[in-house]
Specification:
Blueprint: E1 3-6, E2 12-16, E3 21-22, H1 29-42, E4 51-58, H2 64-72, E5 77-84, H3 91-97, H4 105-113, E6 119-123, E7 126-131, E8 144-149, H5 163-172, E9 173-181, H6 186-194, E10 198-203, E11 211-216
Parallel strand pairs: 4-5, 4-8, 5-7, 8-9
Antiparallel strand pairs: 1-2, 2-3, 6-7, 9-11, 10-11
Helix pairs in contact: 1-2
Length: 221
């Protein structure tokens, strides 16, 4: 049975015994979401006019990445957030995580209670589209600006990190699109490069991993 554990920054995560894996970094769940996905991806994407960025998240999970992005959305940086998740977490488990102490709990629960397979306008600046599907098999949306690649680790779910799947993501992204992931393994970096991304190593979250990866699809191909 999945269990709730507290990470180093005081925020909670879910531990999955049969995979021996956590949904978030044990060094800090909230810190990871803020640094790797909100700051290094969503907030990093260059915009010059009001633009609704198309964000694709691989793994909705606890909804932490989604809620920090929704909280960061404003009149100039809006989001259409598309999340792919095969095994949704029950709302009862989310309530036990007690994220209301660190994020807008009403907003978080509205994300979890939003229906699947439809687009819900959670706020004027944030639309959510949850798709219950297997990332390795489902069709990807087109024109994606930002990708949060937050699947379980390659040694736990190697099928999620194949070069073929990175190619599909690359082809689905708009020029200048960016992808971030907590995984900085050399082989993952090389796979991203082989499919066409320009890949950079970035400092990891405070108190967490030393490095993360950010991959950018070139404007001119």
């Amino acid at each position: 049975m999945n269990k709730i554990e507290i990470t180093a920054d005081g925020s909670a995560t879910i531990y999955v015994p049969h995979l021996d894996e956590h949904y978030h970094s044990v060094k800090g769940a909230l810190t990871e979401s803020l640094h790797i996905f909100r700051d290094c991806a969503f907030m990093h994407y260059p915009i010059t006019t009001t633009q609704r960025l198309r964000v694709l998240e691989i793994g909705f999970g606890t909804g932490l990445n989604a809620v920090v992005t929704a909280m960061a959305s404003d009149d100039s940086r809006q989001a259409h957030y598309i999340s792919l998740e095969l095994y949704p977490v029950e709302c009862e488990m989310i309530e036990k995580l007690n994220y209301g102490a660190i994020v807008d709990n009403d907003l978080l629960m509205s994300l979890h209670r939003a229906p699947w397979e439809s687009t819900e306008h959670i706020s004027p600046n944030f639309a959510l589209e949850k798709r219950k599907c297997d990332f390795t098999k489902c069709e990807l949306p087109k024109g994606i600006d930002v990708v949060y690649f937050d699947a379980f680790a390659p040694e736990k779910q190697p099928e999620m990190w194949s070069e073929e799947l990175f190619t599909r993501i690359f082809e689905a992204m708009a020029p200048n699109g960016i992808l971030t992931t907590y995984c900085a393994k050399g082989e993952i970096r090389r796979r991203l490069q082989r499919v066409g991304f320009i890949v950079e190593r970035l400092p990891g979250p405070p108190g967490g991993k030393r490095e993360i990866l950010r991959a950018t699809k070139p404007k001119e191909l």
